[in-house]
Every structure is written in structure tokens, then in C-alpha cells.
Amino acid sequence: MLAGALDLPDFAEIAAPYLAVKWIPPKWDWVDPLKDRKAEIEAIEAGLKSRSDVIESEGYDAEEVDRRIAADHAREEELGLEFGRAATARDEPAAEVDPEDREQPMQSEENAA
């Protein structure tokens, strides 16, 4: 702008439209991606973070991601495609263990106690 590379004659009077940008920092690499993803999901569900915050922290534009997800869903419906969501431990009921199936302590462990 100052060097004259851009022709913005009204910049001095109404700069706001030219400055309306959103900076999204680059994504950081994960140490344990599964653990990090589960923590992000829990934070969203607990109301401690928004989906937008999580998406932006990975270097993406949340509005663009939402548009792409909506377009994917519309295309799936149009083509009669049906994809399930990945099962997680919190979606699966806890397995019940029959008391007779529980591991019994070894004879030496009973005597030690």
C-alpha cells in the first residue's frame, strides 16, 4: 500500500473493509493424535471450547469446513450414500462381567493377604 503497489484510493477514509481479515495460525503437530482428538471432543461437549476454536487451532477456517461438511452431506443424500460415524468408547455400552467369569486369585495370592 505504502509502496504504491496497490491502488486503494479510499483506504485512508474507509480502511475497515480492507482490513477485515481473520488470521489463522499454522497447525501444530500432535504427539498423540488420538488422545488429543478425544480431549478436544470432551472440551467441546463440556462447553469449554467451541468447534470453531478446535478447527481454527488446526489451521482451518471453521466456516469453510462447515460448508464442506454440508456439501458432503447433501451429495451423500443425493447419491443415496450412507456413511456411519466412527464408534468410540463412549458410544459403546459398558460390557457386563458375569461374577463367575471373574478371574479368581491364585492360591498363593489368597494366602499372602
Unreliable stretches, pLDDT < 50, 5 or more residues?
none
Percent helix, as a range, is 40-55%
Taken as a percent bin, the fraction of beta residues is under 5%
By secondary-structure content and strand pairing, the structural class works out as mainly alpha
Number of helices: 5
Number of strand segments: 0
**Order of secondary-structure elements:** HHHHH
The dominant shape is extended
Main sheet, how many strands, which sense, barrel?
Answer: none
Q: What is the CA–CA distance across the termini?
A: 81 Å
Tell me the radius of gyration.
26 Å
Question: Overall pLDDT, averaged?
Answer: 79
What would you say this structure looks like, in words?
With 113 residues, the protein is an all-alpha fold. It has a domain at 29-83. It is 42% helix and 0% strand. It has five helices and no strands. It has helices spanning 16-19, 33-45, 51-57, 62-79, 107-112. The longest helix is centred in the middle third of the chain and has 18 residues, at 62-79. It is extended, with a radius of gyration of 26 Å. The N and C termini lie far apart (81 Å). The model has no long low-confidence stretch (mean pLDDT 79).
